[in-house]
Amino acid sequence: MxxxxxxxxxxxxxxxxxxxxxxxxxxxxxIAPATILNEGLLAGMSVIGEKFQKNEVYVPEVLVAARAMxxxxxxxxxxxxxxxxxxxxxACIGTIQGDLHDIGKNLVRMMLEGxxxxxxxxxxxxxxxxxxxxxxxxxCSIICCSALLTTTMGHxxxxxEIAKEKGVRxxxxxxxxxxxVTEAFCQQIGADCYTSDAASAADKAAEYxxxxx
Length: 213
Ligand code: B1M
Known about the structure:
binds CO-5-methoxybenzimidazolylcobamide, 5 strands, 59% helix, 9 helices, alpha/beta, single chain
C-alpha cells in the first residue's frame, strides 16, 4: 500500500496519531503537501462522506475521522500556504439564532473543509445579520445555516431578506439544513439549496464553487 493510501486508510479508521506519523513520513519522502492533502486526507474523508450518506458509518466515526483529518491538515496548512495552494472558495456557517445545537453544523463544516473549502464558523445562535455581514466582510460566497428547532428555524428567512436589503443576494449561495428543514421550506424562504445531510451539503457547495471558477 502506498503511503497516501495508508493516510487515507488511517483517517477512515479515525487514527489521528497514525495520520500525523504518516503525513510527516510522506513529507520526509518529498511528496508535495497538496498531493498529501488531495490523495491522502481528502480521499479518505471522501470515502467517509460516501459511507455516511449510505448509513454505513455513523456520527461517531465521522467525528473521529474529522478529528484525524484536522490533525493532518494542521501539519500541512503552513506548507500549503507557502506553496500558494488556493482554497476552492469560502463559506461561513452557523446554527441559526436561538438554537444551540451544533453537532450537525460541525459535521457540515468538517465535510466542507474536507472538500477544500475555507470555512468561517460563526458558532451557535447566530444573528441573521451576522451571516450576511460576515459573508460581505470576509468574502464568503456561501452561507450555510443549520437549524434543529422548529421554533427558531424561521430566522433563516431573515438571512435571505437581509442579503436582499444589502444588495448582495445574487452574489451569495444560501444553503439551509438541519433535521426539521425541508426542500419545501428552503423554497418557501427563497434560499438556494437544501440538503438532508452533511456530505451532500459539501458536494453541493463544491459544485457551486467549481461552477463559479
Ligand atoms: Co435538543 N432537541 N433541545 N438538544 N436535541 C432536538 C432537536 C429535538 C428534536 C428532541 C426532541 O424533542 N425529540 C427537539 C426539537 C423539537 C422541535 O423543535 N420540533 C429538541 C429540543 C426541544 C431541545 C430543547 C428546547 C430542550 C429543552 O431545553 N427543553 C433545547 C434547546 C436549546 C436551544 O437550542 N436553545 C435542546 C438542547 C439540546 C442539548 C443541548 C441537550 C443537545 C445539543 C448538544 C449540541 O448540539 N452540542 C441536544 C440534542 C443532542 C438533541 C438531539 C437528541 C440530537 C441532535 C443531534 O445532534 N443530532 C435531538 C433529537 C434528535 O434529533 N433525535 C434534539 C445529530 C446531528 C448529526 O443531526 O443536527 O440533524 P443534525 O444534522 C444532520 C442533518 O440535519 C444535516 O447534517 C447532519 C447529518 O449529516 N444538517 C445539515 C445539519 N445542518 C445542516 C446544514 C446544511 C445541510 C445539512 O446546509 C447548510
